[in-house]
Write a structure and sequence with these properties.
It is built from five helices and four strands, in the order αβαβαββαα. By secondary structure, the chain is of the alpha+beta class.
Length: 102
């Protein structure tokens, strides 16, 4: 299975997927830390966190998959939402909770 197939299975197989640097317990960059904090603030405890630092093919593949150049990247119910700045904006205006609850 190639990286694109792996990513597609992850995104389609889990309600919430966060591609990040590090893990929720030990984020390896400030943006990934902020993304996990936003999810927790929305009450999301159960999500797939994919550490892109552990797999170079996934790290580059996710950028191609989403056509988005930066990490972290959030997917909800198979749909790409955005990075930490987009997550913060959606969280602040209440849309992120709505997306997560749908």
């Amino acid at each position: 299975m190639n990286a694109q197939e792996t990513i597609r299975q992850q995104v389609e197989g889990h309600a919430v997927v966060l591609y990040m640097k590090g893990s929720p317990q030990f984020p390896q960059c400030g943006f990934s830390s902020r993304a996990t904090q936003i999810l927790k603030a929305c009450g999301v405890e159960d999500f797939l966190a994919v550490n892109v630092l552990a797999d170079a093919e996934i790290r580059e593949g996710i950028k191609t998959f989403s056509n988005w150049p930066t990490i972290p990247q959030l997917y909800i119910k198979g749909e790409f939402v955005g990075g930490s700045d987009v997550m913060m904006e959606l969280y602040q205006n209440g849309e992120l909770k709505t997306l997560l609850a749908a």
